Amino acid sequence: MIPGKHPSHPTFKRSFLFAIQGFRTAVRQERNIKVMLVGGCLAITLGLAIGLDAVSWAIILLCCGVVISAELLNTSIEAVVDLVSPEFHPLAGKAKDISAAAVWVLCVLVAVVGIIVFANAIVR
């Protein structure tokens, strides 16, 4: 199906509004999204205080966006798993644990990147 061609398919503007609604819902209901946003704000504040160059800003902003996106994907995976398996099932738990692990691995790598970027900026 070509997006926008089917009468029941939302317009681009409406799809964009659904995305904003999803982000707001996640921020209101999910603790980990709030933690990631606070971490991103701290990185931006530190970047402003240190005076990062353009490339360093690009790296920091990209890392913040990727971590928040990964956490949103993890949240959506957990919601779908809860929908299809409301009672405990080992495979449901496995899917949720692996999804959370993916975010954790990304956060560890982003922390290392952040340390490298900020250490480099401080040394300069």
UniProtKB/TrEMBL annotation:
Residues involved in a divalent metal cation binding: E30, E78
UniProt KW Nucleus keyword: no
Catalytic-site annotation from UniProt: E71
GO biological process per UniProt: phospholipid biosynthetic process
PROSITE patterns the UniProt entry points to: DAGK_PROKAR
TM spans (from-to): 35-68, 101-123
Binding residue positions for ATP: E30, E78, E87, F88, H89, K96, D97
Cofactor(s) the record lists: Mg(2+)
Cofactor comment: Mn(2+), Zn(2+), Cd(2+) and Co(2+) support activity to lesser extents.
Molecular function GO labels: ATP binding; kinase activity; metal ion binding
Chief subcellular location: membrane
Superkingdom in the source lineage: Bacteria
One Pfam family hit: DAGK_prokar
InterPro entries with a match to the protein in the record: DAGK (IPR000829), DAGK_sf (IPR036945), UDPK (IPR033717)
Protein's UniProt keywords contain Lipid biosynthesis: yes
Residue sites binding substrate per the record: E71
Topological type in the membrane: Multi-pass membrane protein
Gene3D superfamilies membership: 1.10.287.3610
GO cellular component: plasma membrane
Compartmental location: Cell membrane
Family that this chain belongs to: Belongs to the bacterial diacylglycerol kinase family.
Designated name of the protein: Diacylglycerol kinase family protein
Organism: Olsenella porci
